[in-house]
Structure formats: C-alpha cells, structure tokens
Amino acid sequence: MILKDIWLDVSAVKERDPAARSKLEVLLLYQGVHALIWHRFAHWFYQHRMFFIARFISQLARFFTLIEIHPGAQMGHGILIDHGCGVVIGETTVVGDNCTIYQGVTLGGVGLNKGKRHPTLGNNVTVGAGAKILGSFEVGDNCTIAANAVLLKPLESNVTAVGIPARAVKIDGVPLPKKESNLVTMDHYCKMEERVRDMEETLLKLQKELSSYREKEGAIQTEASPEERSEEEGNRE
Ligand SMILES: CC(C)(COP(=O)(O)OP(=O)(O)OC[C@H]1O[C@@H](n2cnc3c(N)ncnc32)[C@H](O)[C@@H]1OP(=O)(O)O)[C@@H](O)C(=O)NCCC(=O)NCCS
Fold first, then answer.
1. Contacts of residue 179, Cβ cutoff 8 Å, sequence gap at least 6
2. Is the CB of 128 under 6 A from ligand 1?
3. What is the pLDDT averaged over residues 70-75?
4. Is the CB of 160 under 6 A from ligand 1?
5. 4 to each of 9, 26, 58, how far by Cα in Å?
6. Are 89 and 117 in contact (CB under 8 A)?
7. Spacing, Cα 147 to ligand 1 middle (Å)
C-alpha cells in the first residue's frame, strides 16, 4: 500500500511538473516526494499509536526537506509538493487526491482547541506559493487558491480564490462580476487627476476666449464715432 502511494506520488510529479525529466530523477531528487515518502511511514506509526516514532520520522523529514507534515495529516494519492520549502501541514489536515501544493503553503489551525482544527482539501486542489488556509473547513474539488492568499472560509467546488482574506474571483473558470469598492485606489486617483487636468485646460480656453472677446468689444467702442457713442449711452439710459 505504502509503495503504491509512493509510486502514485512520483507519477504525479512526472505528469504535472514540466521540469521533471524522468521518474527516477523525481524519486531521487525531488524533496516534495521525499517528504511524502517519509510521511507515509510516519502516518503508519501514528495510526498504530506509536506517536513518538511517528513524530521522530516527521522531524527527520523536516530536517532534510524543509517540509513539515504532521504524522496525523491524511494525505491522498498523487500529491505534488512543488519546491516545497516552508510547507507546513497540520495534524488534522486532510488533503485529497491529485492536489498541488507550492512552497510556503500553510494548512494550519486557528486557536488552541483540540480536535479537528485544520482544513480539508478536496481532490485536484491547487494551493499557490505562500498561501495560507487556516481553520477547520472544507475546500471543494478543483479549487485554486492563489499565491499568497489567506483563505479563512470554506469554498465550493471549482472556485478560484485570491487575496487577503481570500475571496472567490472565478467559478468554473468564469470571472465573477466585480463589486464597486469605496476605497480610493491608484486607478481612481489617476482618473481624477486626468479630469482635473481636462477641467483646467477648458478653463484656460474659456479665459482666453473671454479676454479676446473683451478686447474686441473695447476696440469696437473706441472705433465708434462720438455721435454713435452718445446715442448708445442714451439708449442705455
Ligand atoms: C490564481 C491563479 C491560479 C490565476 O488564476 P487565473 O484563473 O489565471 O486568474 P486570472 O489571472 O485571470 O486572475 C483573476 C483575478 O485574480 C487576480 N489574481 C490572480 N492571482 C492573484 C494573486 N496571487 N493575488 C492576488 N490577486 C490575484 C488577478 O489580478 C485578476 O484580478 P482582476 O480580474 O481584477 O484583474 C494564479 O494567479 C496563481 O496565483 N497561481 C499560483 C501559482 C503559483 O503559486 N506558482 C508558484 C510556482 S513556483
């Protein structure tokens, strides 16, 4: 069983990592695969209540791979831990089949309560570099959590979530309509600056037109004969 799991992990890396050249190379040189191999043994000891040995193996694996998977975590088949450095996976985490986990990911808990406190990932979930999924909730199949996102709530299947806190931006690959934000962003500021510039230009044009109109009016008045001027003044009165 453990050997089959290891073989599926190696195959997953060969299939999904474009940089992988051969299964032998993957087996010998990929630290994500090594971490999972160590974990398969540690998890066996954990299941048989030999917690010290289980923890010892997991710490050894952490020392060599920089990937920390608690021996209690339930890892599915065909998982790709790419690069892997800085990955932390908590005790009550469940990771489904064919998931991809990049470097710097934390599948962690919030608070100090015992019991189920870590996330459960469905199948084919991708967790981008540096993303954190914190708390005991489910992430549906085929979800993608963007690099550096912090996910604190459950996700339905086929959702792409980005940002801090992570929010859904796509469902089934279709972008969701954007909400109008009250925050003034750089984009808003640039548009405002453009409008102010337009208004200044229009104002300048109007000022020029007004002064040339006044000049013309003054010139007409000086050109007019004294009789015409007195007639005009009489009309005004
Ligand atoms: C989320 C991700 C998968 C992109 O998915 P996608 O379906 O191609 O989505 P898009 O690129 O169309 O992005 C959708 C929106 O999310 C935003 N977005 C994408 N990735 C983001 C991220 N990491 N953080 C914040 N916002 C992000 C985009 O800017 C876009 O917003 P907009 O519509 O306002 O422009 C990708 O950005 C990602 O983070 N992948 C992880 C890859 C990784 O960790 N690689 C490590 C290799 S070593």
1. none
2. yes
3. 97
4. yes
5. 9, 15, 20
6. no
7. 7
Cα separation values, 74 from 32, 69, 122, 208, Å? 16, 10, 12, 77
Ligand 1 in reach of 147 Cβ (< 6 A): yes
CB distance 167 to ligand 1 below 6 Å: no
Confidence of residue 237 (pLDDT cuts 50, 70, 90): low
Give the mean pLDDT of 41-51. Answer: 96
What fold does the segment set 2-175 form as a domain?
A: UDP N-Acetylglucosamine Acyltransferase; domain 1 (2.160.10)
Sheet holding 174-175, edge to edge: 80-81, 100-101, 126-127, 144-145, 159-162, 167-171, 174-175
Q: What is the pLDDT of residues 147-181, one digit of tens each?
A: 999 999 999 999 999 999 999 999 999 999 887 76
Q: Note whether 124 and 145 are within 8 A (CB).
A: no
The rounded Å distance from CA 146 to ligand 1 centre is 5
The pTM (predicted TM-score) of the whole model is 0.78
Tell me the C-alpha distance between 14 and 25, whole Å.
9
Residue with tokens 């020392």: 63
Beta carbon of 166 within 6 Å of any ligand 1 atom: no
pLDDT tens, 183-232? 778 888 899 999 999 999 999 999 999 999 998 888 877 776 666 666 66
